[in-house]
User: Fold this.
Amino acid sequence: MAIKGVSLSVAQGELVSLIGANGSGKSTLLQAIVGLLPGWEGKMSFWDNSLKGLAPPAIVQKGISLVPEGRLIFPPLTVLDNLKLGAYTRYRKKQHREIAQDLEMVMTLFPILKERSYQAAGTLSGGEQQMLAIGRALMAKPKLLLLDEPSMGLAPLLVDRILQTLVQLRENGITILLVEQNAQAALKIADRGYVLETGRVVLQGSAQDLLADDEVKRAYLGKDYGEFYEGRA
Amino acid sequence: MDYPESEQRRQLQLERLQSTLNRAFRSVPFHQNRFHEFGMDAFQVETLSDLSKLPFMERKDLGEHYPYGLFAVPLRDIVRIHTAPGTNLNPTVTGYTKQDLNVWREMVSRALSISGVTAMDILQITFDPGLANWGRDYKDGAEALEASVIPNTPLSLEKQLMVLRDYKTTVLVTTPSSASQLASYMFRSEFNPTGLNLKTLILVGDAIENPFRAFLEDRLHVTVWLHYGLSEVPGPAMAFECENHEGLHVSEDYFFPEIINPQSGEILALGNSGELVFTSLSTRAFPLIRFRTGDKARLIAEPCSCGCPFVRIEWAGERTDQLITINGVKLRQAQILRNLEKALGFIPDKCHINKQQHSYLDKYGARSYLEVSLLMNEKLFSDEIKMLQKLINTAEEKLHENIGVPVKIKLKELGTFSDEIQ
Assistant:
């Protein structure tokens, strides 16, 4: 999906949700941020440093990590190895002690991952895989965490569990940009939100305002169109 | 007041501008067609300065798309429909969504709070019918501050003064012309302003000159605060005075101002005087995109010592078009003539229209009104003076109803008539 003329900003410590239907350009935007779509034009900066021309590893080193859509864990590798791979840019810097601490932090955040440390990641349930993908991204010690549809394919209870984790991470000082089709859930935990439609931002504002917005309700929160138009032109 | 840093403010403006343009482009054929005429698409606005590539919106566009043609949301989302006298035969119809009303409430209450209004105040609103919508917006804004509001109600001067005195009003929101009338009335009826609790006078609708401000402050023992707004669309307090009273701060988080050369349409360098153009940044129902206000203004480049980072305009009330502003209501000659024709039932041979400016020096304190001089001829003439009087009175009433400002019709004989306007 091509996206054009889009400006958005995330302040330190914020949890911002980007919502929109399939094909509205949400994932494209995230991929551009982390350097997976290097051809973009315009300006993108992180802590006043331009991200122009940077390859994904350099962007990870700057403190931006992506939890990709569909998790993209390494199924044959163990849970532990998957997590360690998330810290690969840091091993070169010999941050072994810090990495061990972070590993401990992730295991505390998701105790199930500790239990399954030596299990092949491919044998985990969907929810556990999502936790692993988030844990792996955290192993890079990001300042800004990007998540692409973390609720996809998960049972409502698990969605809640994952999103509550994001709230906790935000409280720990991590800035979060969340892309979601599940608009209601995403806005409930967010500070602010943007609504993307065919590659353009059509609305933005505080998450609370967007949740109460008729247009958002109609298009993304599953309210029936007919109910709104009954008796009116 | 908490204000965002200037860089953050620019970013917020750009983000809001882009989504406003995208929504307008998507939902309003008028905007889409006009953008295309200029070879533009909404997404091509990548910076705030790109806005200058888009076409202007003018007052006549509002009348031509009567009533709902410029609405950017379905009627289901509209919670208030407002009619203002248009500059053509059609009135101007604007709509507001729930969010729009919230935005106005925030804007007005912020402007009021900068004028020192608090929950301890009793705030009285007095407007002409043509500004009725502003009355509602001021009421909402003041209520949000938990002030005690006396909403806009048409009252005689005597009753107004009674309310002002007996209800212990501390803040009065009105037009300069009404304030002048009130001050003169108090003087004539030998009413001592020390008998009032009034301390704040918020003037809207027309610019004021310094001697008039000094006169009001001196005579009524108040501080005068000037607000700027658009009477047809979408409301008041788009710009407001701070404690320094040196120009008006534009509510830049909701409106983006430009100053253009009224002839060429080019943007003028910061600090030059020209026509004020506004683009709404968060309006949902009725977006304004590069709307030409017809008001002459200048952006003040220097930051204000009050700490409010919003840019200031210097506004002296001059216009860049032919519109006549009476008590904040804007009128076009042709529109007055058409309404006159309807009221009289025929086209007058000759007619002269002018604004009778209120004068604070006039001890009778006449309010500004529209004066229409008609040439006496056989169509008008009746040998019964009563019939003639009735015709004139009915015409005055009809005109007043249609254009929303006080009207006086004068009959003149050939020879006493200037040929300026026919």
